[in-house]
Amino acid sequence: MAKAHPKRFIRALESLEQEGDVEPIAQLHAPDADISNPLVQHQHKGVEGARDFWRTYRESFEQIKSEFHHIVAEDEVAILEWTSTGTMADGRPVAYRGVSVIEFGPDGIKTFRTYFDPRKLKEKAAA
Q1: Does the structure show a pLDDT above 90 at 25?
Q2: How far is CA 85 from CA 36, 48, 124, in A?
Q3: What is the pTM of this model?
Q4: How far is CA 85 from the centre of its chain?
Q5: Are 21 and 98 in contact (CB under 8 A)?
Q6: Mean pLDDT estimate for the chain
Q7: pLDDT one-digit tens code per residue, 29-55
Q8: What are the angstrom distances between the C-alpha of 18 and each of 11, 14, 21, 86?
Q9: Which residues have a Cβ under 8 Å from the Cβ of 89 and sit 6 or more positions away?
Q10: Is the N or C terminus of the chain more exposed, i.e. has fewer CB atoms within 10 Å?
Q11: Alpha-carbon distance 75 to 126, whole Å?
């Protein structure tokens, strides 16, 4: 069961990144889910919070694709190492790496924490 959790998450993220469909990933979250990353200024809670979080994520980019390099899934916790590349909403190219830690419960994702250097999203393209 532990290995199925990250696979469902990755499929839903691919749908969000490629098609802009926030529902598959939002619906993976539990009613009391807690979602955050280094850029979040307020706490996102539950399915509606997940919907807002992931919509904001996708709207930050003109296009984005995440590739997962290493996945560790044990019991109800998954750790995913990834690289995301694409174009910011303002047209700047972007590439950054990070790690996401996901805790799963009986109702879906309980916590989603992702860690990356937020400066990578603010850097201007090299001339």
Answers
A1: yes
A2: 20, 27, 14
A3: 0.89
A4: 13
A5: no
A6: 91
A7: 999 999 998 887 667 899 999 999 999
A8: 11, 6, 8, 11
A9: 59, 60, 61, 62
A10: C
A11: 43
Encoded amino acid at 22, one letter: V
Decide if pLDDT at 102 tops 70: yes
Residue 57 and residue 84 in contact, taking contact as beta carbons nearer than 8 Å: no
Tell me how far apart the alpha carbons of residues 30 and 110 are, in angstroms, rounded to a whole number.
6
Q: Both tokens of residue 94?
A: 């972007």
Q: What is the pLDDT of residues 78-92, one digit of tens each?
A: 999 999 999 999 999
DSSP 33: E
